Amino acid sequence: MSVSLKNTLLFALVFGLILATGIFQSWNVALGIFNMGLISAIMALGVNMQWGYAGLFNIGVMGFVALGGLAAVLVGMPPVGEAWAAGGLRVILGLVLGALTIVAAILAWARLPHGRMRALAVLAILVVGFLTYRWVFDPGVVAVEKVNPAGTGYLGGLGLPVLVAWPVGGLLAAGAAWLIGKTALGLRSDYLAIATLGIAEIIISVLKNEDWLSRGVKNVVGVPRPVPYEIDLQKSEGFVARMQAWGFDPVTASSIAVKLAYAGFFVVVLLALIWLAEMALKSPWGRMMRAIRDNEVAAEAMGKDVTARHLQIFVLGSAVCGLAGAMMTTLDGQLTPGTYQPLRFTFLVWVMVIVGGSGNNLGAVLGGFLIWFLWVQVEPLGRWLMDVITLGLPDGSWLKGHLLESAAHMRLLTMGLILVLVLRFSPRGLIPER
Amino acid sequence: MDVLNALVAFANFVLVPATAYGAQLALGALGVTLIYGILRFSNFAHGDTMAFGAMVTILVTWSIPLVFAWLQFNFPTLLFPIADWVLSPFGVAGGPLPTALLALPVGILVTALLLLGTDRVIYGFYRQQRAKPVVLVIVSMGVMFMMNGLVRFVIGPDDQRFADGARFIVSAREFKAMTGLREGLAFKTSQGITIVTAVIVVAALFWFLNRTRTGKSMRAYSDNEDLALLSGINPERVVAITWIIVAALATVAGVLYGLDKSFKPFTYFQLLLPIFASAIVGGLGSPVGAIVGGFVIAFSEVTVTYAWKKVLGYLMPEALEPSGLVQLLSTDYKFAVSFVILVIVLLFRPTGIFAGKTG
Fold this sequence. Notes:
The complex is a heterodimer of chains A (434) and B (359).
Chain A: H1 3-24, H2 27-53, H3 61-76, H4 81-111, H5 116-146, H6 165-184, H7 189-209, H8 211-214, E1 220-221, H9 230-235, H10 237-245, H11 250-282, H12 284-294, H13 296-301, H14 306-332, E2 334-335, H15 342-356, H16 361-389, H17 398-406, H18 410-425
Antiparallel strand pairs in A: 1-2
Chain B: H1 2-39, H2 46-74, H3 79-87, H4 100-128, H5 133-155, E1 168-170, H6 172-179, E2 187-188, H7 189-211, H8 213-223, H9 225-230, H10 235-260, H11 265-282, H12 287-305, H13 309-315, H14 334-348
Antiparallel strand pairs in B: 1-2
């Protein structure tokens, strides 16, 4: 069987599974899986760039995804004028002061002559800078968070079209990645892993606790959408008449139409990214990346700047994850910092890349769709399995109740099993690297 | 008097909690560092191993009263008095110690069996293949998923409290009555047990590594695998013993953390970050480093997130008394502390404080 035929069959199988969901369950569920599958595929592309092209071990995907989500809020939501008047400038000034402190400390460390005086000077800059920052920043935050805390209590966004947020999400993630890469790249791969794990947790705690920025755990709801609302479609006479003429229920049809519109946007982004990634991989740059991955010492001897290339691809891959994060928040219409879990947003993406085939963009995309489908469908399957297992047990028995209740946790077990099985029997994934 | 009060407040809110937390982190980091030294990969499933060990211990703790009742019913003459005598110092029979300590050996045993099974079924294959360490790290991610799912499947994702026995060795009220100070010093039983157990476990571990033949062969294997193999050390035996020790360390750490705070599967997963930070800060592969790293991380976490208002209030003249909380960072950012210390150490001393393995 030729490679392309096998790949076509694999993709046909996955889309067949989604179609079957549409036929046997509901088209709403199927399209929901498809849309999140598209976003998952983009995340997997980002991780595949880092791991598959360059061998960088990034387990902070969740942080970059969340930063993308923050971008959707910061760009798409309308600004809260009252909050800006109350303390917006103080907050911004405080942040600038904080950043200046860190820059000044780094400069002092680099420029001053070595010795005890240097350490003292840097320490002094940090302490004074920190105190000034808190003195400027804290009252501003209090003032902002006091403005209608039940409804806003944050600075809001820029009020721009939400589509602008997608590239901005990429940029935010890229900025964070640059900072981490600058410090942690060039050290051992395990260290980069722990550093990214840590930064992801920090980003999530910032989103959870800095209410002036993202409303924290109060969540930002009603992020604007690039597509019409279902309720508006149901009110539009033209839409209702046409759907009825085609023999559809207007309510169901409206939600399907919205999902299809999202899918349209996402497919365009995914195809563009696949094309870009493939072109990059085939170019001399892509060959250089793989050469570095396969033998860093040899590549360095050939005059390649390994650390700089690593930084470059780390930033690019993280930007793709940020883009996916912004798209996801747009799809959800809300930013809920409490829902970002490392198992779901970091390690699941890793399962997608490994199962799909690391180093192969099509593989990562396939993995994204397949694993997301399983993530959603394993739960009802587990429930069904538990129903069958507990058939013989008397109703209301403790064991039966416990087993049925625990069925929801089957999906973690299944994902681990899939990852371990693939690594054991097909370590290069479903669509191996060429 | 004020200085004493300040000292007591400092001990109550910083010294004692940070020491207990540091001991828990050190035990966790020792497990990570041993696996790194012998099996040469960063085990991401370690947090969930701790959760598994703690879970088994909790289940056994819960079933002890049932066993007790069964003995009472079936063997009222000989066995029951023995059981009664064994149980008397523990919470289940009204004693001061938590019953979980009695269940601990069973927890260690089951966890050791699980880890040995995982090694046989999963990791062993990659050792034979001489796979790159990073492959093993990814495999451990899969194991992490499975263990996480298993723990949630068996005990559920919610909080479980299983601490019984006396709550305090010295409560704040008793301390105040005893010393006449305004500040109280509370010393929880869980904190005392944590510190004592950690000291015993660490002493036993170092005795084992430095004095016994098996321990020496483990260190030899960790230092230079090829030389160790040449001198006739059986690698499979070394690996198996490592897993058993790691199971013991992880279970003890997990149970102590659960006794001190509470048991929740997700918290154990989150402990991965401070534990790895401790191991790396101390120097991956160095047992002494893991212990020092654990205390460095714990003390910085607690001091940076503690509100110093009370302590400073005693020390400073009234006019200068701080108006705010004097808290450098809110407790929600405790992860940031482990992270920043990790980054600082890596920037200035990339192999950690006690120069661990570099390869």
